């Protein structure tokens, strides 16, 4: 195992290349209710910081139950007119939102990176374009719902409460808002407390395109605001993406209320490499699977299963590849690994790394790169000698920490892949189509990638099995979460 600490494969330093496009951030932001930014009745605010520098970017409002009540009332008031609007008119609004997002893409990408810590190349190439695509895709569905569900009448559900996490702030807002509006619902959205700025800027786009007042309302705040929203009597549907713990609370909160519920929760997804795979390609897939967005990805390939005959080759190549990952200024175009989203999340991740060592797994972390002094940073890590019983092999870490294990036969890989309370995603790497299909048909996961990882498309439904939640987002299947089919 000595070779893992060799420095060959080191990346040379590049000159800094930060994106210097200026982005104006207001000193404070109110709530977006009934088409306007308003001060919260609570008079409470909280800072949102840049996790790479700990600099305070702005102050955002903390909505109280009274503020949430105003937002729900506004969504309720807007509902009758919005759902009666000819479907193709609703579609036009969604098209306009998508186009405006594309026009302002650079600004959104920089803001996303500043508020959340992810590398600019990801917000620029993934988050913002995918968010725009989601609005484009659903714009197309608005006047075709009768074709999506032939023989049924598709009616909106009503007022939708949507609560989202901090790992893909704008993209999750798009995943929630676009299908809801296409289907004729109105919305109250609550972004995550560390990353509300791009959702608030999206509200500016709603104003620019003349979206009718009250069709989308945005309330900021933490868990209490979310709970006030989900439990509000005026809400017809709750859509949630976040942790399994909060998902279970919401299931209790909405039980017996008649509210519809969809949950997108955590994961501990297996990434399985067979001996007949293209190993170089698979190693790249491991990197994309777990180090993309610092591992803040619900479907991250955090459990790596490698067929025993190629374990040595894969781990050696992985170690070399990891030496070349560049960690640092998220605004720098060459950065591969950005900042951890918050001090709290960093502590959680470090706790898991300690736990992995204590339980007897062997930690590897490329250590030749300087960790910036300010901000929240975690060097990408992987463990070998992991047992299925180890905590790091069972619990979601939501950080750049990979558990590497081996297997001998496809049957064993399958059993171990499915041995988890989660079922969000999986990766399979093999040269044999039949093997890929056979595995895919038996792995209990909502999304299965073959010879790739972490690819998304608005047309393909995303969602989980078991404790990873229920309901789908994207595709025709995602529409039904926002429709009453009669
Ligand atoms: P979290 O559950 O703590 O927070 C998610 C959102 O819920 C935030 O907006 C938060 O303010 C709100 N919230 C917190 N407590 C609440 C309560 N009691 N009632 C109502 N709302 C409440 O999760 P997080 O730590 O922000 O996000 C990370 C988790 O999200 C991970 O477990 C990850 O797997 C999951 N996630 C899943 C998906 C998916 O699509 N399946 C996508 C992204 C993240
Ligand atoms: Mn922030």
Give an overview of the whole structure:
Strands 14-15-16-13-12-17-18 form a 7-stranded mixed beta sheet, with helices on both faces. The chain has a 6-stranded mixed beta sheet with strand order 9-8-7-10-11-19, with helices on both faces. The protein has a 3-stranded mixed beta sheet with strand order 1-5-4, with helices on one face. With 486 residues, it is α/β, with parallel strands linked by helices. The chain has helices spanning 65-84, 87-103, 105-116, 120-141, 145-148, 169-182, 197-208, 223-230, 244-254, 279-290, 311-323, 343-358, 391-394, 410-418, 433-442, 475-479, and strands spanning 28-29, 31-33, 36-38, 45-49, 56-61, 154-156, 159-163, 186-190, 216-218, 237-241, 260-264, 270-273, 303-307, 362-364, 381-384, 401-407, 425-429, 447-450, 469-470, 483-485. The chain is globular, with a radius of gyration of 22 Å. Residues 1-9 have low confidence and may be disordered. The chain has 16 helices and 20 strands. The protein folds into 2 domains: 28-265 and 468-485, Aldehyde Dehydrogenase, Chain A, domain 1; 267-450, 3-Layer(aba) Sandwich (Aldehyde Dehydrogenase, Chain A, domain 2). Nicotinamide-adenine-dinucleotide (NAD) is lined by residues 163-167, 190, 192-193, 222-223, 226-227, 230, 241-243, 246, 249, 264-267, 298, 396, 398, 424, 464, 469.
């Amino acid at each position: 195992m000595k070779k893992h600490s060799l420095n060959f494969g080191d990346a040379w330093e590049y000159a800094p290349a930060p994106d210097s496009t200026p982005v104006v951030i207001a000193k404070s932001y109110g709530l977006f209710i009934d088409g306007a930014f308003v001060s919260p009745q609570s008079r409470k605010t909280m800072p949102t910081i840049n996790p790479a520098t700990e600099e305070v970017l702005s102050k955002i409002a903390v909505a109280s139950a009274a503020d949430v009540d105003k937002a729900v009332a506004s969504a309720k008031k807007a509902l009758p007119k919005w759902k009666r609007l000819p479907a193709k008119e609703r579609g036009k609004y969604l098209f306009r939102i998508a186009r405006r997002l594309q026009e302002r893409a650079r600004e959104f990408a920089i803001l996303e990176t500043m508020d959340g810590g992810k590398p600019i190349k990801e917000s620029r190439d993934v988050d913002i374009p995918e968010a725009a695509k989601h609005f484009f895709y659903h714009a197309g569905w608005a006047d075709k719902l009768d074709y999506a569900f032939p023989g049924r009448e598709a009616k909106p559900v009503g007022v939708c409460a949507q609560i989202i996490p901090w790992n893909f702030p704008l993209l999750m807002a798009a995943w929630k808002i676009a299908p809801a509006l296409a289907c004729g619902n109105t919305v109250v959205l609550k972004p995550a407390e560390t990353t509300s700025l791009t959702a608030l800027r999206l509200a500016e786009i709603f104003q620019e395109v003349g979206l009718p007042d009250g069709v989308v309302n945005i309330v900021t705040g933490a868990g209490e605001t979310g709970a006030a929203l989900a439990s509000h009597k005026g809400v017809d549907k709750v859509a949630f993406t976040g942790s399994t713990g909060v998902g279970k609370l919401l299931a209790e909160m909405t039980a017996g209320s008649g509210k519809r519920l969809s949950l997108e929760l955590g994961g501990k997804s297996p990434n399985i490499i067979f001996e007949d795979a293209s190993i170089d390609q698979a190693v790249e897939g491991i990197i994309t699977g777990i180090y993309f967005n610092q591992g803040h990805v619900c479907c991250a390939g955090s459990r790596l299963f490698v067929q025993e005959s190629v374990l040595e080759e894969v781990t050696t190549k992985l170690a070399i590849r990891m030496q070349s990952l560049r960690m640092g200024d998220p605004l720098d175009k060459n950065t591969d690994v950005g900042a951890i989203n918050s001090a709290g999340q960093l502590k959680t991740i470090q706790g898991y790394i300690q736990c992995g060592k204590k339980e007897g797994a062997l930690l590897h972390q490329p250590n030749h790169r300087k960790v910036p002094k300010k901000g929240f940073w975690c060097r990408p890590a992987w463990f070998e000698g992991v047992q299925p019983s180890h905590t790091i092999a069972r619990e979601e870490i939501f950080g750049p920490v990979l558990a590497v294990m081996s297997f001998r036969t496809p049957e064993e890989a399958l059993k171990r892949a499915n041995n988890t309370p989660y079922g969000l995603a999986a990766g399979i790497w093999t040269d044999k189509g039949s093997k890929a299909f056979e595995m895919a048909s038996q792995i209990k996961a909502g999304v299965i990638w073959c010879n790739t990882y972490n690819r998304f498309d608005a047309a393909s439904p995303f969602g989980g099995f078991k404790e990873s939640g229920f309901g789908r987002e994207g595709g025709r299947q995602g529409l039904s979460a926002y429709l009453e089919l009669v």
